[in-house]
Design a protein that fits this description.
The protein contains eight helices and five strands. Strands 1-2-5 form a three-stranded antiparallel sheet. Strands 3-4 form a two-stranded antiparallel ribbon. The model has no long low-confidence stretch (mean pLDDT 88).
Length: 193
């Protein structure tokens, strides 16, 4: 594949600027898949630099599933109206609303998990790992706790359409694309049952 074709394909696949795509392709030796990984790593660094910025705009999206039996709704915030009115931003909000409907997260981020919830989970998991050898018990307990939280924390859940990334990593790619802080500020899941 010619360099210009690879650059165009990477740009189309990721939505990241041509300069960032070119740099990632050069670093990856022309391998598109490796360049995507490089861009994904860069997106989390970019997102952390923008973490202190103020959110002043956003969009609300909803997804209805199972014949009207389940609804996922999300408020996705950003810094400017320019980004909030972008079609790709609205699509991201919709994708996260679909994630909420399908996966029923209980918490937005790990910071939202209360200490008593963690303690209750640890009590259950300590009983489950009591027969694990002493040397590996703490690691087994931490693994169970991490798995438990990954299922219940929206930002840590694997993205439905691409389980190789989490919802946090998905959002980070859009932070990289738009150059603004993006955050799920609220979500809700409603169901008939």
């Amino acid at each position: 594949m010619a360099v210009s074709d690879a650059l165009k394909q990477l740009r189309d696949d990721t939505g990241v600027s041509i300069m960032q795509c070119r740099k990632a392709l050069e670093e990856a030796g022309g391998d598109i898949e490796k360049a995507k990984v490089i861009l994904r790593k860069a997106s989390s660094a970019i997102a952390s630099k923008k973490a202190d910025r103020e959110l002043a705009a956003g969009v609300v999206a909803a997804y209805t599933h199972a014949g009207g039996q389940v609804l996922g709704a999300v408020v996705l915030s950003c810094e400017t109206d320019f980004v909030s009115k972008n079609e790709d931003f609205s699509k991201l909000a919709y994708e996260i609303a679909m994630q909420v409907a399908a996966m029923n997260p209980k918490f937005r981020s790990r910071e939202d998990v209360k200490e008593e919830d963690i303690r209750a989970a640890k009590d259950v998991f300590e009983e489950e790992v009591k027969n694990v050898p002493e040397a590996a018990r703490e690691k087994a307990l931490q693994g169970k706790l991490d798995g438990y939280l990954a299922e219940r924390v929206l930002l840590d859940q694997p993205y439905l359409r691409d389980s190789s990334i989490t919802i946090r990593e998905l959002i980070d790619t859009y932070v990289q694309k738009f150059g603004e802080k993006i955050e799920v500020t609220r979500f809700e899941r409603l169901s008939v049952r």
